[in-house]
Amino acid sequence: MFLRLVYESFRRQKRRKLLAGAAITLGVTVATAMIAVATDIGDKINRELRTIGANLLLTPQEDTLDVEIGGINLKPPSDGAFLNEADLPKIKGTFWHNNITGFAPMLPVNVTVQRNGLTQNLTLLGTYFAKHVSFGKEEFTTGVRSTHPWWKVSGAWPDDNFRDVLLGERLATQLSAKAGDELTVSGRQLRVSGILSTGGGEDEQIVAPLALAQEILGKPGAVRRVYVSALTKPEDALARRDPKSMSGAVYDRWYCSPYPQSIAFQLQEAIPHSHAEQIRQVAQNEGAVLTRIEGLIFLVTLAALLASALAVSAAMATAIFERRAEVGLMKALGAGRFAVASVFFAEATLLALIGGIAGFAAGGMLARQIGRSIFDSQITIPAVLLPVILAIAVIVTFTGSAAAIYKAVGLDPVFALRGEL
Amino acid sequence: VNAGVSSSAREVAAGREQAQHTSMFVRMLVRAAVLRRGRAASALLAMVVAAAVATAMLNLYVDVQAKLRREFRNYGANVILVGRDGASLPAGALSRVESVLGSRGVVAPFAMVVARTSDGQPVVVAGTDFDRVRQLDRWWSVNKWPAQPQQALVGVRAIAAVSPANQPFDLSFQGHTIHLTTAGTVQTGAAEDSHVYLSLPDFVSWTGVQPSSIEVAATGSPEEITAIMHQLEQAIPGAEVRPVRQIMEGEARVLGKTRATLVAATALIILTAALCALSTLMGWVFDRRRDFAIMKALGASDRLLNSFFAAEAAALGATGAVIGFILGIGIAAWIGRVNFHAPVVPRFGVLPFVLAGSIVVTLLSAILPISMLRRVQPAVILRGE
Q1: How many cross-chain Cβ pairs, A to B, lie less than 8 Å apart?
Q2: Coil, helix or strand for B78?
Q3: CB within 8 Å: B257 and A374
Q4: C-alpha distance from B279 to closest chain A C-alpha (Å)
Q5: Cβ contact (<8 Å) for B339 and A296?
Q6: Which of A108, B74, B189, B290 could form a disulfide with A279 if both were Cys (CB 3.0 to 4.6 A apart)?
Q7: What are B36-64's pLDDT values in tens digits?
């Protein structure tokens, strides 16, 4: 009888069930989509923050001081120590290699440029633009185009394997050179493939493929410094501790957390004779920005969950209130409070499960759409969330109906059947 | 039951005699709300929640961008002034920059030369204003800022070259020598680690070189910053004003994505809240089909009925919107306090939108059931079919 009551209620009151089910589906859709966005937002914003530039810097351990003012390098070019270019792919062999979004080696060398009968001493910066590098079986592309996304080129980016160069914006104006021109740089004829604008010191420099800079310097494989862009976790008290003073378990936890400090430590281990340091301007601030944005989206998600819980409760309350004549009839025929309540709760559970599954699917699609249109990447919902979402849907539907059911079972059947109250 | 009814009827009659004459229309509105307190309260509650959530989200949407921009100003300068063709900036440039900027940002001047240590090693020495740098470059990790003349702030990599045993040291530039003590070290992970910083008066009296660049952290939207740059260009003709693209573009990207996420979330939340209010209100109006039928049976015109339910809906919508607005401001302020440690300023410009939206939702939820009921004969409704 119990099952038949529930079954017939679904079969005969399709419109009402559809309305309540639609409310639950909508609520669960919004909740699922917001939970998916909130769990993924940290990673997404972290990637966007990488557009501010590299957050780690690798330098040779025993280096002399950098002497650079306004883009002009005054340090004797062969002075000091170098890193070995052949070691760089090992960056992708560290524990947190999946968090490293790119790296760009730099080698400034001094050159002389002849133009319009004038000879000038300038700095030529050797780097990777978008170089194919392989480590073990892993193939990846890295260089300034991923680590320094604010660099803009009018013309074409040079190929890392050729001898074309970029000319800094202000230097180009000064030399009255444009893309496609030929320059004599330290006795070599080089073609300018594009004009580079960075807003920094590079605007006064020539930027060339690393191999060319090494050839001019006469030191194959030499790299002065490497900018590394890594997805990191905001710094906390543990991150700031000195790894040497940690006990085994704490050290493991520190080592296996993507703090800027621990990634720097691992880079230092991977690259011989190197010193890794976080670039504090970038690393320190991104933690703060990330924490704020994550916190904001978390609170907004709470608001979304609250709104959808209320929507579901309101729909259920209305649906039950409309059926008080039925309650009156059941009670008049001798049903107890418990029997009436259990019919309603069974219906609510069934509705919550159906609406929950439909809402989970719709919410997944919505989250994917949000991910694609805002972040140009996927937001996927782990299937593990389904039971959690269903449980929340059932609980919210239950609590939403509870007050209405309590009121309904307390009705005097006479008044309920006459439609009063 | 009879006694109860007659005594309550007498009370009502007595009340009516004393009451001022009000129109039937207003009386029906008030009595409808008073007599069905429970249902009216739940409809109002739905409206209040919807309006509160909408207010909070709209308030946050406006305020959060300003808050996040301030967060981004911790990245330091987004505009930089340099002398044209490597020349020094004209005298008084700093005070003119500050008068243009007012309270819209922080500035710090920098002057740089390459000096030699006592053993002849070249090192970049910069003169600056330490109080201003502390404000501008908050990420500098400094163990002790210089407080007295002839004290230097030495980069962690430069310390080995100039003063390995932390002793006083000499620097020379074009034949002039200055004697300095180390106040503390600075660590940034970037070029500053190889520099030695002096206070500007020490630097100028030693080298005779005036500041060549002024770094500016200007607050505001991209348009406001462009306007500030334009004003700076006009105020200091001898300077070239450049944006720090690295910071400005990163900020624009991150803010853009956050804003888009917030818009999506706001739209979803407001939609859900509005639909919740709509379904509750429709249930409420539909529930009162007997009132409707009685009025119609007693000869009320369609126009009167429409305007009655519309007025009721509008009153409910407006009340809900005002209470919800106050609550929503509270929610936004709480989120501001929890997440940004700064209050969110209430935006009263949001109120008209919330008010209009609430009234539209309530009107919609009144009109739909009424237009459905209008087609039904009053007798059918009164019989409860």
Answers
A1: 215
A2: coil
A3: yes
A4: 7
A5: yes
A6: B189
A7: 776 777 778 888 888 888 898 888 887 88
